Structure to design on (228 residues):
């Protein structure tokens, strides 16, 4: 079971970036997927999730209206479109799998770094 | 939605037990039995060690245990080992417009 994030990089304030989270080794379409980030020297912060068929999405106040989560179950991939990026969005971005019929995020990617500067 | 409150650091000697608290409110920790704990070694992927307040996923050492009382959840690590040195985060479901919230994180040091 694996999640692999990609798409991070350096972007100017106000710019856009799209992250991908590619899954393998499990039935991707059966699991919610979450995004969590960690700013330098700070703790983990949950900010978005998407349900199994993409009919439900949720966001933290800090990104609502700027970030959009989506998924393509045929490609086993979740996407995070990030617009109007700010310096405070600088962080390592992790995607994580929601447990099936239980609470918690049980499979995590290694993270991809986004720097807004 | 504010982060759950954890002590910044906890330390213990090998073999000892330590407990990390996670203080929330009646809108999160106190509202549901949906609390999870994560171990995070810097530079690595976080690891789920406790779900649903006190359940250990398969493969997680039984030295880790979780509990909850009111608005406060707790993680106990017994028989502390050098490899337990890491950052630990609690997480709770909430009944606000931000459905998940992490704790502030606790750095565990093995003396």
């Amino acid at each position: 079971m694996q999640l692999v994030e990609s798409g991070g990089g350096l972007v100017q304030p106000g710019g856009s970036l799209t992250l991908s989270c590619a899954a393998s080794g499990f039935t991707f379409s059966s699991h919610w997927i979450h995004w969590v980030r960690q700013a330098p020297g700070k703790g983990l912060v949950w900010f978005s999730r998407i349900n199994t068929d993409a009919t439900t999405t949720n966001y933290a106040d800090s990104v609502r209206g700027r970030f959009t989560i989506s998924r393509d179950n045929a490609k086993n991939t979740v996407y995070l479109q990030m617009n109007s990026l700010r310096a405070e969005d600088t962080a390592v971005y992790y995607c994580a799998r929601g447990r099936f019929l239980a609470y918690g995020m049980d499979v995590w990617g290694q993270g991809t770094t986004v720097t807004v500067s | 939605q504010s982060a759950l409150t954890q002590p910044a650091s906890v330390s213990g000697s090998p073999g000892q037990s330590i407990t990390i608290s996670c203080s929330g409110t009646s809108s999160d920790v106190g509202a549901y039995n949906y609390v999870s704990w994560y171990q995070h070694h810097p530079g690595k992927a976080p690891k789920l060690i406790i779900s649903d307040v006190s359940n250990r996923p398969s493969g997680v050492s039984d030295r880790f245990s979780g509990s909850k009382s009111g608005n406060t959840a707790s993680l106990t690590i017994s028989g502390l080992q050098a490899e337990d040195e890491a950052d630990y985060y609690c997480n709770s479901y909430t009944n606000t417009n931000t459905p998940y919230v992490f704790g502030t994180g606790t750095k565990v040091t093995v003396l």
